Structure formats: structure tokens, C-alpha cells
Amino acid sequence: MGMQLHGFRILVVDDEPHIVQFLEFGLENEGFEVRTAADGMSAMAAAKEFQPHVAILDVMMPGMDGFEVCRMLKKTENVAVIMLTAKDEVEDRVKGLTLGADDYVIKPFSFEELLARIYARIRNQFPNLFGEVVMGPFQVDDRRKEIKFQGRMLELSPTEYSLLHFLLLNHGMVLSKAVILDKVWGYDFGGDENIVEVYIRSLRDKIGDKERQYIKTVRGAGYRVEA
């Protein structure tokens, strides 16, 4: 990943010890400071003392459920909340988002997916913590709106910058044209989805990615960046 975020605090709240251990180990390995809690009350106490940047909350917990913890955290703390929800609980996701959750991950999830979501939240909510971020051959400087590839500055238009930045931010995840349009061009963009293809082609030209080894096309699904 190459995002050195030492001093970055994550609170993991889940009543299943094996999930907690798995996340604690993985996140500490990435350089995060991690605190864990097995129920809502201890989560609130930990949040007060630990002041996490991101809280990962399981919806299903005995006593105070993840929704209630989310609601209380959002009232008192400046924290990004990612909910862990069961596969088929669509209402849970809607409910979580209306209570102020910032994102959700569906169980069972891969650690990479959760990590990508965590980085996306950090970027959105704590952008001032970033100088330059290195992802494989890319160096992203979001303050200057500059991206280098293999040490060479890319000449990008603002839209190209936004697109490549979004792809890199979510690297490893498959992004549909619809999602890309929404996040890069905005909800109200009335144009054609093919504009995404045009811009992807232009980015591939600029980084010399004829083989599509960095920006991959996933047939029928969208695009994925391997950084």
C-alpha cells in the first residue's frame, strides 16, 4: 500500500473474537494503531479515550447493536464509521447510512477490500493528514493535485487527475463506469458513459500502458487498477 499513516487510530468493535484478532493483526501490520471492543458500552468508552479516526462496527452485537453505537459515536466524535453487515441485510445498510455510517462492508469480506474502504474514508475525512502517497509506481500528491508515474510527472487535465486519483484510491476494486461517472463527473452529469472509456484511453496513453497492466478492463464490469 505504501501509505505511511503512523499514529492513525482505528477502533474495531465486534463480539466475535476471531474477527477482532484477524483485523487487529492485519491493521497493526499496516501501521495503524488499533483498539478493540466487544460490545457497545466498551466501544463508547474506548472511543472517548482513544479518539479513533475510523471505527469499524459490526451491526449484530448483543446489548447495544452497531447502529446504536454508530448513532452515539457520530454525535460525539469526529470519526469515520464503516459498518460490517451480513450478506442479505439490505435494510441494515440503508439504516446504517441514514444513521450516519460512512460506508459498509458485507461479510464475509477480504482484508484488502476493508483496507481500501478505510483508506477511502481517511482520504475523504482527513485529507490534511496526507502529503504524498506512494502506490506501486504511482506517487500521488493530493495537495498539489499531481501524480507521478515511475518518478515522471504526468501532464493531466483536472478531470484526468480526478479519474486517476479515484482509480488509485480504490485500487484492487472493480469500478463500474456508472460509479466512476458518479464520483468523478458528479451526480448531475448528463452525458454518456462512453466518456469514461475516452478518458481511460487517454490515461493509458499518458502512462504508456499499452499492455493494460496498470489500468485493467474487467469485461462487463468496469475497470480495476493494479498498483
From TrEMBL:
Portion annotated as DNA-binding: 130-227
Gene Ontology molecular-function annotations: phosphorelay response regulator activity; transcription cis-regulatory region binding
InterPro entries attached to this UniProt entry: CheY-like_superfamily, OmpR/PhoB-type_DNA-bd, Sig_transdc_resp-reg_receiver, WalR-like, WH-like_DNA-bd_sf
Gene3D superfamilies: 3.40.50.2300, 6.10.250.690, Winged helix-like DNA-binding domain superfamily/Winged helix DNA-binding domain
Residues of the Response regulatory domain: 9-122
Keyword Transcription: yes
Chain positions found as 4-aspartylphosphate: D58
Keywords for this protein: DNA-binding, Phosphoprotein, Transcription, Transcription regulation, Two-component regulatory system
GO biological process: regulation of DNA-templated transcription
Domain OmpR/PhoB-type: 130-227
PROSITE patterns: OMPR_PHOB (PS51755), RESPONSE_REGULATORY (PS50110)
GO cellular component, one term: cytosol
Protein's name in the database: Response regulator transcription factor
